[in-house]
């Protein structure tokens, strides 16, 4: 229950006073990402502050999420075409990292469903295959039953029943049977989905806590009725036409013991059984492939071990964290305290948590020292900053050289660790070319040179459905101040590996 007396009161946020001017009604349906990160749709927003932007300032964090409604008649393609012009102007006005920035429009549904869309699509196709199997079985049984009822239909036809009337009767029986199956499916499906979501629904958007928002409404009922009627008609047509094609003389001959008619009847049933087995086999193979694809997506190897790893994000508002010295000191102290907690194996800090937010990953141009340069750089790579122990926390394998160490401080030699994808991109023969000890330079920070001291395995940082990008890992203590100032405008990520289930540490 909100308190109307809060209007006009002063609250303190980050040491600054703010006046409460309104109260927003809380609704379980308002499940919207609070950032561009799709994983944040679970987060609850307690306070809304006005976004204040100085158009004359170039001090920004490089990305901003805007919620808007398109005008009537405006398509996504048209909106993105207009934003492409804005992107080109933005890149001309702000050099450097802005060369990799862009403006784009995505639907809210795309943002919310991005992480589970492929999994749900595969499941949907698999369920469709199962439906076809069930319908083919029922159709085969109906064909067999209609063959047994041909004498009945012949007698009814003899007393005046037309073929159209017989077809209508058989289709009605098929639709009623299909509707009964649909009603049973609604009950079993509702109970089953609620049971599954009660176990784990953390990665599925718009389902509510423990699947509380999943319910049988008029849209589900209407879809079920429409699907039941459609399948009842489609898979009842063949039995209906077969059963209604009666011939009284043929029935009389069969009753007299005509061997050829009996032989045809047995062969027809054998063909029906063979067709049913063939269709079921094909559909079962398709279903197995769909389930296999779902399992491959669901349990795809991201390149690191997320089990028993707890992630946290922290926004740093103080200006003392805008420098590399201030941020690295905070990270070192915090990691030491986290590592001392009971049940914690290791901890680390990073600007960019894998699979957490695509927009957090920075893209920068890189120059390989000693190579001919034709243009601004030799190519673009993902850039991230980490503390020592990052690869141990996520169990990213070290392929060559060494990992970042505690001795990689600001006063020591600048070093970096790169991913295998980066080694293959700039050294065509892969690790055989030995990228170790190569010097990297970045056009945005031309005065610094970093030596490659290690190569680690690839990770699917932006999503399991995308290729592993080439990544350069900077020691957080050696990150240029300009890059640190840019990074801290977004929340810093903390990674903690526990001995057992991380939920115990979280509580």
Overview of this protein structure:
This protein has 507 residues and is of the alpha+beta class. It folds into three domains: 4-110, no CATH class; 117-298, no CATH class; 309-506, no CATH class. Helix content is 43%, strand content 14%. It contains 13 helices and twelve strands. A hairpin with a 2-residue loop joins strand 9 (439-442) and strand 10 (445-456). Helix 3 (117-148) packs antiparallel against helix 8. Mean pLDDT is 75; it is low at 28-42 and 255-264.
Notable features of this structure?
elongated; six-stranded mixed beta barrel; alpha+beta; three-stranded antiparallel β-sheet; 13 helices; 12 strands
Topology (SSEs and partners):
Blueprint: E1 10-13, E2 16-19, H1 76-93, H2 108-113, H3 117-148, H4 150-158, H5 163-199, H6 218-244, H7 248-255, H8 259-298, E3 309-314, H9 324-339, E4 344-350, E5 362-368, E6 379-386, H10 390-394, E7 398-401, E8 415-419, H11 420-426, E9 439-442, E10 445-456, E11 471-475, H12 481-487, E12 492-498, H13 503-506
Helix pairs in contact: 3-6, 3-8, 5-6
In short:
With 507 residues, the protein is α+β, with helices and mostly antiparallel strands. The protein has three domains: 4-110, no CATH class; 117-298, no CATH class; 309-506, no CATH class.
Low-confidence stretches: 28-42, 255-264
Give the amount of beta strand, in percent. Answer: 5-15%
Q: Indicate how many domains the architecture comprises.
A: 3
Instruction: Describe the oligomeric state of these chains in a short phrase.
Output: single chain
Helix-residue proportion = 40-55%
- How many extended strands? 12
- How would you describe the shape? elongated
Task: State the strand order across the main sheet.
Answer: 5-6-11-8-10-9
Q: Indicate the radius of gyration in whole angstroms.
A: 32 Å
What kind of sheet is the major sheet? 6 strands, mixed, barrel
Q: What are the secondary-structure elements, in order, as H or E?
A: EEHHHHHHHHEHEEEHEEHEEEHEH
């Amino acid at each position: 229950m909100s308190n109307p007396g809060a209007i006009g009161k002063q609250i303190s946020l980050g040491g600054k006073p703010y006046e409460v001017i309104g109260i927003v009604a809380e609704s379980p349906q308002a499940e919207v990402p609070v950032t561009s990160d799709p994983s944040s749709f679970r987060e609850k927003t307690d306070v809304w502050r006005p976004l204040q932007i100085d158009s004359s300032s170039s001090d920004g964090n490089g990305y901003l999420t805007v919620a808007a409604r398109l005008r009537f008649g405006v398509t996504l393609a048209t909106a993105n075409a207009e934003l492409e012009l804005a992107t080109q102007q933005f890149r001309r006005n702000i050099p450097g990292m802005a060369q990799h920035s862009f403006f784009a429009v995505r639907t809210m549904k795309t943002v919310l469903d991005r992480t589970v869309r492929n999994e749900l699509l595969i499941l949907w196709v698999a369920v469709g295959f199962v439906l076809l199997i069930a319908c083919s079985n029922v159709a085969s049984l109906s064909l067999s039953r209609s063959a047994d009822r041909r004498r009945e239909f012949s007698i009814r036809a003899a007393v005046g029943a037309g073929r159209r009337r017989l077809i209508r009767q058989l289709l009605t029986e098929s639709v009623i049977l299909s509707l009964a199956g649909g009603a049973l499916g609604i009950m079993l499906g509702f109970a089953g989905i609620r049971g599954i979501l009660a176990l784990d629904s953390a990665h599925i958007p718009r389902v509510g806590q423990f699947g509380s928002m999943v319910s049988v409404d008029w849209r589900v009922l209407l879809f079920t009725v429409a699907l039941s009627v459609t399948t009842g008609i489609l898979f009842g047509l063949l039995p209906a036409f077969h059963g209604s094609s009666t011939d009284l003389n043929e029935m009389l001959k069969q009753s007299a013991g005509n061997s050829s008619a009996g032989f045809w009847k047995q062969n027809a049933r054998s063909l029906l059984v063979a067709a049913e087995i063939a269709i079921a086999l094909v559909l079962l193979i398709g279903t197995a492939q769909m389930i296999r694809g779902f399992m491959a997506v669901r349990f795809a190897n991201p390149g690191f071990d997320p089990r028993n790893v707890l992630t946290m994000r922290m926004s740093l508002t103080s200006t003392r964290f805008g420098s590399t010295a201030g941020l690295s000191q905070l990270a070192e102290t915090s990691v030491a305290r986290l590592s001392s907690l009971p049940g914690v194996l290791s901890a680390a800090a990073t600007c960019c948590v894998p699979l957490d937010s695509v927009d957090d990953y920075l893209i920068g141009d890189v120059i390989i020292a000693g190579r001919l340069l034709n243009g601004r750089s030799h190519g673009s790579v993902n850039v991230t900053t980490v503390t020592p122990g990052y690869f141990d926390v996520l169990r990213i394998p070290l392929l060559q050289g060494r990992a970042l160490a505690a001795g990689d401080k600001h006063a020591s030699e600048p070093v970096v660790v790169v991913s295998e994808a980066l080694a293959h991109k700039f050294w065509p023969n892969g690790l055989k070319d030995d990228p170790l000890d190569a010097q990297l330079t970045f056009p945005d920070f031309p005065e610094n040179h970093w030596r490659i001291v290690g190569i680690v395995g690839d990770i699917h940082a932006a999503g399991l459905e995308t290729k592993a990008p080439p990544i350069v890992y900077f020691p957080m203590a050696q990150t240029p101040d300009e890059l640190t100032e840019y990074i801290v405008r977004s929340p810093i990520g903390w990674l903690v590996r526990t001995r057992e289930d991380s939920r115990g540490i979280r509580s």
